[in-house]
Amino acid sequence: MKTVTVLGSTGSVGTQVLKVIDRHPDAFRVVGLSAYKNADLLRTQLGKYSPDFYYFPEGAVEVQSSIFDLFEDKKYTKCLSSLEELASKPSDIVVLAVSGIAGLWAACAALKRGATLAIANKETIVAAGRHLKTLEKAYGGKILPLDTEHSAIFECLRGEEKASVKSLILTASGGALRDLPLERLGFVTAEQALAHPVWSMGKKITVDSATLFNKGLEVIEAMRLFEVEADQVRVVMHRESVIHSLVELTDGSQKALLSVPDMALAIESALFYPAHGLNSVKPLSLADMGELHFGAPDLERYPCLEIAFEAAKAGEEACIALSAADEVLVEEFLKGKIKYTDIPTALSKTLAKFSSRKLVELDDVLCIDESARKYTYSMIGAK
């Protein structure tokens, strides 16, 4: 039985991870949980899984102790002081499903004790992926991607020599606005941007899917996780999201992973690694599907993708700054403070300001992140 710590257990990815664990009670035991705001759901999860430890930030509710005293009194769980401390506690797998750069030090802590890091946190990989790979190699841990695209690439690369890999190809559904006339993009509402035609995800990643900045982040993720250059990663539009990603080999052939669109496959691939899960998703019938569609990204519709590629080539400072700026911009768009089309404009300005350093030390990551956020807020006139 593998022990699992789920950081971000009340979010979209975290709850899906726990659903997978529920289907395999003899294979996994939850020993750690964390949440940021959803106290009620965390309390329910603590009662259900009886973990050894949990983390809930002080101040996220009026009086934390009044909510969780029940569990402290029973002495079967203990509240820790940080995500990093929770990730440091013994477990075979740490699932990093928190949002934003907040998961950085927890990821480092898990890898420093040689644990498996099942990571769905794009921002942490984008900002510090090179450093995480160094820790993986130094301490004997394992980084396993939880998102469908990089999980698919990971599976396609099994057994392949690095010298045989020519390029990595990420597929993109196109998001909620893929069929909206270009002239209407300036009037898009948050509700429209959140209506994804294929996937059910958190708000931030759904808006990023609409702008295709999410795919841009995935390009940078692929560079970090699989240690390739920007010109070795490509993006192809694929509306049905059946082919999750492809690997092109030097002989001209391509390998792809196909399944019905369901994140459970990537989750089980990480949790059961190096084995595969059993009946993780419904069988795929290509005969019933009939046809699949592909195309090149329209950069007029998706300027954020091009900006992300420029950042990938510019270096780590640009990638960190753009990731931070996008968090601010999506939040302000969801609040109705800026227009949808303001997002690429502001990202482009951020890229121009933060592109001086090709490589960034780990201790400098959070400083660049904070500086980029402040710059973005000042640029759009928000607080």
How would you portray this structure in words?
The protein is α/β, with parallel strands linked by helices and about 375 residues long. The protein has three domains: about 140 residues, Rossmann fold (3-Layer(aba) Sandwich); about 150 residues, no CATH class; about 70 residues, Orthogonal Bundle (Rna Polymerase Sigma Factor, Chain: A), CATH 1.10.1740. The protein is about 45% helix and about 15% strand. The chain has 16 helices and eleven strands. The strands form two sheets. Strands 4-3-2-1-5-6-7 form a seven-stranded parallel sheet, sandwiched between helices. Strands 9-8-10-11 form a four-stranded mixed sheet, with helices on one face. Strand 5, helix 5 and strand 6 form a beta-alpha-beta unit. Helix 6 runs antiparallel to helix 14.
